[in-house]
Structure to design on (808 residues):
């Protein structure tokens, strides 16, 4: 149980140090950075992937692209991609890091949005058109609400991916909570490594809870079947 | 560096088998070990756990909830936290990857067994199969396609995830990425990415092959429909 | 009135779904399209609201070609009911019913009030309004589907096998309910089914289509049963055409005897082979055989007002007496139709 004791010591050392709570290297700042980079990458990915997934799912064209991109994104090593972009584009701005972050988070949203829209019962589509809804009304009033659980699942999987990759990206010079881990490891400052790791894990869990809340609020109980039959 | 940077092929030739721990060949072997061991252990653990979740339905909710949480944990901090327990060893990478694999495979086993039609189960009972034989001879084969689909996801993502271990010195081919970043040099990155993607493609192909061999009826049915 | 003027539907691969169909669906009547799968009945229906466009010919809605109307606008004026109801799972029942009124830009309050009215009209508990479709049974969902189609009070209703996914008892209920609704609303209904019994029960006119999308015969159900145009129609109509035809002959004309009923307890002698024993409220208890006054044998009843010859004959066959008991709405005996009376009526039915 030695490791547990040293573990707690490191945590006390890290979180107890007032210097770790202020300045550009302080926890609040690093947390904000991590949030900023993750949110930026995720928002860009959503903006690209959701419309594309809706289009492919609604029209049925480009299905191969969706499937291939999903498999490729799973196979591509994130660290390799990050290093490649930084070596290619230099490290003068955050974009050489943000680009691979976005690239890796597009496919989960894309494939789930596509599957969600494609999986809508054809009878439902038929009924919607038969009632006199126009193409875009069918999409926004029927297909999207019904496919929403899967669209959000895609976003959640991407968020997991982005939070993790943002951490790894600290290796190539990006700010955020990953700095504590990477720098601490390089300088054998284990308090910083353990403290930073715990912060990142907590951050990831909070993101999960947020997504669960968003799902609760936005998905119709008729779709999630959350209500009990009275 | 007087005669200019070497081409990728020259670089591969020079680094393939240097006898040192970081030769491409050794990195490849490490990479295979650290990705295959978690896949196998994850399957071996997911089967009984999945079965338990099917047998005792109340187990599934907490198990899948826990696995969802595990799946959401970023790999790097988890590696770092494990160092204090397992040290800078391959085990530090293998343990989290095993858990990620289980997070995918347990639901796959449960869904797969759920896909066994009730009338098939009933008729197996009626014909006098014992529960164990029913499981081995009827239910698992029918569940196999779903479980194998899960295996494909797990194999491909494990193979790519191992490379993050390079940041604690245990990343297999991921070591090429850190080497490339430290003395800025492109060929190792390209070689690393290509080899990892190739490994993933081969593993995926083998699992597809296994799927065809283990469940020939799935393909026969598709052929009939076409 | 909906008019098909030699309408054909050909697909690029050469298959002909509908072949030169000419047909009229008169205003205020139920026209049923019936036939085996592949006869183009659903395609024909879907060409009316332009879910599918005809390759040749013209479909007219009160004389106006549908080809010239923008499909969504056209569809908002035509009720559409499909097999699995196709309710929107993410919307409450009340909002499902109000779909078309919302689309037409009605005031929300008015749309919801109309929806509530329709919910009751199709025989559903108003408490269901706030539920979601998954909380309803198949039969309830189908009723909501009908209510939704009626919401904007369209003159025309298209129904594509609406009752084929529910169990037989619920189906019978839904059919009866549709006939009741139609007697109040007088819509122009085109109804597609593969079930000839449903067609005969519901249709004012029945159009039988054969594979390849050609019209085999169109007639009212009684004529269809007595004079099938050819072997295909005869075979499609199936067994027992004669007996099923009795459904269209009212039992009102049956001659009833009122001298065969005796109150419970009286055991006066008689020359009649059977006497009907009734209780103090005139409700039937059973048939007493003349030879064995101590026993009571089972009886069968039919409604004196409203039932058909088929029901009367059925009632007669249920009892060893061979007589059918006519009862009123309270179940009180009006009279007894003897074998002789039934025989007379059947002879008349066979002639006419």
């Amino acid at each position: 149980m030695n490791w547990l004791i040293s573990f707690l010591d490191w945590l006390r050392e890290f979180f107890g140090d007032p210097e770790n709570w202020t300045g550009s290297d302080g926890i609040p700042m690093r947390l904000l950075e991590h949030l900023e980079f993750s949110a930026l990458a995720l928002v860009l990915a959503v903006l690209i992937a959701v419309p594309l997934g809706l289009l492919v799912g609604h029209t049925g064209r480009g299905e191969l692209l969706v499937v291939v991109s999903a498999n490729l994104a799973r196979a591509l090593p994130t660290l390799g991609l990050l290093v490649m972009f930084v070596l290619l584009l230099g490290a003068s701005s955050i974009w050489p890091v943000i680009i691979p972050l976005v690239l890796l988070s597009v496919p989960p949203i894309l494939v789930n949005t596509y599957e969600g829209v494609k999986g809508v019962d054809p009878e439902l589509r038929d009924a919607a058109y038969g009632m006199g809804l126009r193409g875009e009304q069918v999409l926004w009033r029927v297909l999207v609400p019904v496919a929403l659980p899967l669209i959000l699942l895609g976003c959640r999987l991407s968020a997991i991916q982005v939070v993790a990759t943002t951490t790894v990206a600290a290796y190539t010079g990006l700010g955020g909570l990953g700095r504590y881990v990477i720098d601490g490891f390089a300088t054998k400052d284990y308090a910083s490594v353990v403290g930073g790791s715990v912060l990142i894990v907590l951050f990831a869990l909070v993101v999960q809870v947020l997504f669960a809340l968003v799902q609760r609020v936005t998905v119709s109980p008729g779709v999630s079947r959350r209500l009990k039959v009275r | 560096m007087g005669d200019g940077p070497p081409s990728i092929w020259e670089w591969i030739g020079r680094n393939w088998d240097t006898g040192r721990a970081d030769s491409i060949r050794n990195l490849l072997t490490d990479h295979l070990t650290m990705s295959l061991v978690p896949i196998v252990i994850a399957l071996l653990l997911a089967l009984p756990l999945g079965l338990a979740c099917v047998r005792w339905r109340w187990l599934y909710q907490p198990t899948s909830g826990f696995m969802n949480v595990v799946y959401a944990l970023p790999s790097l901090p988890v590696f770092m936290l494990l160092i204090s327990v397992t040290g800078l060893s391959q085990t530090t990478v293998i343990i989290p990857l095993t858990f990620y694999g289980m997070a995918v495979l347990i639901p796959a086993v449960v869904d797969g067994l759920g896909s066994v039609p009730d009338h098939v189960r009933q008729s197996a009972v009626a014909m006098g199969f014992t529960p164990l034989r029913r499981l081995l001879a009827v239910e698992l084969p029918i569940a196999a396609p779903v479980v194998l689909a899960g295996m494909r996801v797990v194999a491909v993502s494990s193979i790519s995830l191992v490379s993050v271990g390079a940041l604690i010195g245990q990343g297999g081919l991921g070591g090429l990425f850190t080497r490339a970043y430290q003395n800025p040099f492109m060929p190792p990155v390209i070689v690393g990415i290509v080899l990892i993607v190739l490994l993933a493609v081969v593993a995926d192909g083998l699992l597809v092959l296994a799927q065809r061999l283990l469940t020939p009826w799935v393909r026969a049915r598709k052929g009939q429909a076409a | 009135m909906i008019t098909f003027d030699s309408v054909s539907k050909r697909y690029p691969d050469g298959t002909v779904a509908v072949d030169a169909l000419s047909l009229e669906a008169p205003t205020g009547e139920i026209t049923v399209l019936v036939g085996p799968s592949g006869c183009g009945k659903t395609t024909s229906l879907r060409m009316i609201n332009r879910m599918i466009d005809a390759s040749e010919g013209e479909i007219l809605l009160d004389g106006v070609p549908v080809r010239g109307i923008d499909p969504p606008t056209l569809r908002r004026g035509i009720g559409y009911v499909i097999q699995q109801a196709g309710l929107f799972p993410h919307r409450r029942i009340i909002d499902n019913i109000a779909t078309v009124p919302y689309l037409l830009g009605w005031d929300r309050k008015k749309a919801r009030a109309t929806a509530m009215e329709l919910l009751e009209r199709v025989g559903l508990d108003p408490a269901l309004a706030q539920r979601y479709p998954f909380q309803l049974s198949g039969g309830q969902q189908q009723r909501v589907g009908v209510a939704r189609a009626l919401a904007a009070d369209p003159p025309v209703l298209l129904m594509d096998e609406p009752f084929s996914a529910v169990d037989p008892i619920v189906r019978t209920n839904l059919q009866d309910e549709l006939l009741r609704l139609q007697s109040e609303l007088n819509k122009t209904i085109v109804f597609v089914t593969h079930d000839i019994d449903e067609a005969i029960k519901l249709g004012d006119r029945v159009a039988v289509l054969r594979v390849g999308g050609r019209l085999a015969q169109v007639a009212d159900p009684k004529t269809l049963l007595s004079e099938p145009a050819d072997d295909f129609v005869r075979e499609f109509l199936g067994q027992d055409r004669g007996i099923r035809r009795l459904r269209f002959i009212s039992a009102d004309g049956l001659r009833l005897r009122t001298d065969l009923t005796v109150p419970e307890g009286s055991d006066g002698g008689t020359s009649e082979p059977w006497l009907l024993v009734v209780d103090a409220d005139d409700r039937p208890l059973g048939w007493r055989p003349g030879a064995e006054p101590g026993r009571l044998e089972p009886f069968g009843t039919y409604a004196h007002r409203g039932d058909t010859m088929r029901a009367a004959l059925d009632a007669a066959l249920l009892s060893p007496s061979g007589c059918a008991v006519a009862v009123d709405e309270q179940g009180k005996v009006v009279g007894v139709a003897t074998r002789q009376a039934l025989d007379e009526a059947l002879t008349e039915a066979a002639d006419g």
Notes: Chain C has a mean pLDDT of 90.
